[in-house]
Amino acid sequence: MSSYKMIVMDMDDTLLNSENQVSPDTAKYLIELQDKGYHVVLASGRPTEGMLPIARDLHLHEHDSYVISFNGSCTTRVRDGELEAEQSISKKDFDRIVDYCRDNNIFVLTYQDGHIIYEGEHEYMNIESELTGLPMHRTDDLKAFIQNPVAKVLGVDYESHIQELSQAFGGVFNDQIDVTTSKPFFLEFVPHGVSKGNALHSLCEKVGIDISETIAFGDSMNDYSMMEEAGYAVAMGNARDALKEIADFVTLDHNSDGIVYALKKIL
After folding, report:
1. Buried b (16+ CB within 10 A) or exposed e, 102-134
2. Considering only CA atoms, which of 50, 169, 156 is closest in space to residue 105?
3. Quick check: pTM over 0.70?
4. How far apart, in whole angstroms, are the C-alpha atoms of residue 142 and residue 155?
């Protein structure tokens, strides 16, 4: 066995192909690696409920592994759904984010009880539901409907507008809230200090693995922190240029079993 012990990977456009599925070859290989003693962890901007079916398909529950969801806000044990770590956006900050999205004509949604909660309409409004498989619930007023803290808020709009707003933020909404992008049309608002990289650090401490013993795979800017922190960083062939620049290796794209291609070289 190599010096690496944990393999952590983003889902959309990394583990999952354009059909939103794990290829049979990739699934088989990741299951075999776990049988050999490697930890496989999924880390995504997705809500937890939008990750667990794929985690179970990859047998993460049988190997006592974890998913990092909402860009690092939550870490959950797959076997029993036990929440190991959680950070959330306060009601006050949630209202501010909704106001900001309304003022800038961005479609806005959040998550509650396994549902996507949204107001308004947009050409891209169903994308998150199509990706995650979660049902959508419409409300006339998000601020009135949501009364408790949330893990993440998602702004959705056309790529050029999201890019423009993302650059203007420089990663920070206010002292309490950070901003990142996953898909080019998603603007993700998360609690300050929440990132896949920080969540990976905490998980490594919990399971007794040094972060230098991890391999991380990603394609988007919300994977940047995780790839910076990991012992070995792999950018997908379809990754943003910024990720390719910090990667130790650039593999094939997400439609060409890029994860398997890289791991066979590294391990």
Report:
1. eeeebbbbbbeeebbbbbbebeebebbbebbeb
2. 156
3. yes
4. 13
3-state SS, the chain, equals CCCCCEEEECCECCCECCCCCCCHHHHHHHHHHHHCCCEEEEECCCCHHHCHHHHHHCCHHHHCCEEEEHHHCEEEECCCCCEEEECCECHHHHHHHHHHHHHCCCEEEEEECCEEEEECCCCCCCHHHHHHCCCEEECCCHHHHCCCCECCEEEECCHHHHHHHHHHHCCEEECCEEEEECCCCEEEEEECCCCHHHHHHHHHHHHCCCHHHEEEEECCHHHHHHHHHCCEEEECCCCCHHHHHHCCEECCCCCCCHHHHHHHHHC
* Residue pLDDT, tens place only, 186-220: 999 999 999 999 999 999 999 999 999 999 999 99
Structure tokens belonging to residue 96: 């501010």
Q: Residue 216's closest CA among 232, 236, 202?
A: 232
Would you mind telling me the total number of residues written for the chain in this entry?
Answer: 267
**Separation between Cα atoms, residue 18 and residue 127, nearest integer Å:** 13
